[in-house]
Amino acid sequence: MPEFFKFDQIEYHMGAAGRTVKVSSDLEEGSILVIKGPSGAGKTTLLRILARLLECDKGQVFLQGQNWLSFTPQLWRSKINYLAQKPAVFNGTVLDNLKKPFALKIKKDMFNLDEAIDGLRELSLNENLIHQDARTLSGGETARITLLRPILFKPNILLLDEPFASLDDNSARSVMEFLKRWLENETGRGIVMVTHNDIYKDISGIKIQELELSEPGVN
Amino acid sequence: MDAGVIPISNTQLALSVILVLITGVISAALRLELLKPLLWGTVRTYLQLTLIGYALTYIFNINNLILIIVIISLMCLVASRTAVRGSPRAGRYSMLLGFFSLWTSTFLVGTIVMVLIISPEPWYSARIAIPIFGMILGNSMNGIALSLERLFSEVKSKISEIEALLSFGASPWESVRDCVKEALRAGMTPTINSLMVVGLVSLPGMMTGQILAGADPQQASRPLPVVVMLMIAAAVAIGCLMLVLLYYKKLFTKEDAIAHYV
């Protein structure tokens, strides 16, 4: 049984200073890998490399034993889905935004409205929100809607960059519970998350691994 | 034939410089820093048009197909350099792609016009080919410059949307399709506008020329100016389309991620 998700000797440069970051880790099915470290340590860069949105100097990533280069970038990104710290909001309603990824060839017309409405409820959002102009949402609502979008897309790995940044403690806790349920609902799922918020420590029964990015060459 | 041409003496030419000077003085007073480019532009206009007068006499007399192709290719080179100047981020590629798009669209449309529509004897007659190709190039150049500039600014302002689509597994084309559409629209709008208002606001350059040279307006307005307008529209459309379609891929790395220089 190959490891679920693993990155091996990933090496990359940070900024003009050219500091080299070397990092290896793996992730068990159904668990969360929390990446920590001071700003400028290269946490976001690592997530973007894992999603193949940036190229690294060295190293390889494996999903269920398969090398990342054996996938097309499109197929890889649909399985290893990166959500930016400030996710894009598209013109149109919340529904338009949730449907947006399903206009792409890779999962064309696989949108399921019932799942979307269930998701809104689970994230303690009013289901009437679905017809609201997405640009008029509050910061907290936007954060949850843009999190629901990749959830509906059903990737294997969610790469989350500071998902709690614009949420208060209560919303953060309910989002964390929501992510825990998402991990448990089906096999073949995992989360890699950059966060400064320790809220996950309050949730019982969640499988957490931590990875500290600090000085060059430590990991 | 020369009877109708309006003669302009050197004194009259000098008087027209006064118009530029007035603008220059205003610019200097308001510190718009337009005086230098205006003067330089005036000198270049005078020199280039005087020299091209001699060159054209020579070229028309020789009337050699190879020479005409070389001359028009040189014109394309100058035009593509001017067209991509506004988008420095793309470096040499934009110059190369700009030249290729301009050259192909110009020769495609120009040759069709020469061979099938005007069909002079011989079909490549320099006397007709050079002005026709010049008109096509001048317009395509502006269209391409606008398209390219818009493509860059659209992609830059929508970068987070584009990356979001990419991270859901969008192909490069799917992720920038809206930007490409805007870029084409920007490049085509001046041409479409001029098709709409031609005759109402402005007269086509060649019709103006014919009328100033003493031609009867009824004859001068048809059918050649119509051909010219349509051929310009076609060339601008093909040129912009080619450039933008060739170009958008350069915004991506070989891993289909947004390139760092965008």
Structure description:
The complex is a heterodimer of chains A (219) and B (262). By secondary structure, chain A is α/β, with parallel strands linked by helices. The longest helix of chain A has 17 residues, at 169-185. Chain A has helices at 43-50, 73-79, 94-99, 113-122, 139-153, 169-185; strands at 5-14, 19-27, 32-36, 58-63, 66-67, 80-83, 157-161, 190-194, 208-212. The radius of gyration of chain A is 17 Å and the shape is globular. In chain A, α4 (113-122) crosses α5 (139-153). With 262 residues, chain B is mainly α. Chain B is globular and about 65 Å long. The model of chain B has no long low-confidence stretch (mean pLDDT 88).
Summary keywords:
heterodimer, A: about 220 residues, alpha/beta, Rossmann fold, five-stranded parallel sheet, B: about 260 residues, mainly alpha, globular
Secondary-structure blueprint of this entry?
The complex is a heterodimer of chains A (219) and B (262).
Chain A: E1 5-14, E2 19-27, E3 32-36, H1 43-50, E4 58-63, E5 66-67, H2 73-79, E6 80-83, H3 94-99, H4 113-122, H5 139-153, E7 157-161, H6 169-185, E8 190-194, E9 208-212
Parallel strand pairs in A: 3-8, 3-9, 6-7, 7-8
Antiparallel strand pairs in A: 1-2, 1-4, 4-5
Helix pairs in contact in A: 4-5
Chain B: H1 10-30, H2 35-62, H3 65-84, H4 92-118, H5 126-157, H6 159-167, H7 172-197, H8 205-212, H9 217-220, H10 224-247
The largest chain-to-chain contact, stated as pair and per-chain residue counts, equals:
A-B, 27 and 17 residues
Number of strands of chain B: 0
Give me the Rg of chain A, rounded. 17 Å
User: Can you give the mean pLDDT of chain A?
Assistant: 92
Helical content of chain A (DSSP H or I, runs of 4+): 25-40%
| Overall spatial form of chain B | globular
Which CATH top level class of chain A fits?
Alpha Beta
C-alpha termini separation of chain B: 55 Å
CATH superfamily of chain A: P-loop containing nucleotide triphosphate hydrolases
Q: Tell me the number of helical segments of chain B per DSSP (H or I, 4 or more residues long).
A: 10
SS-based class of chain A: alpha/beta
Proportion of beta-strand residues of chain B:
under 5%
Low-pLDDT runs of chain A: none
Order of helices and strands of chain A: EEEHEEHEHHHEHEE
What structural class do the secondary elements of chain B suggest? Answer: mainly alpha
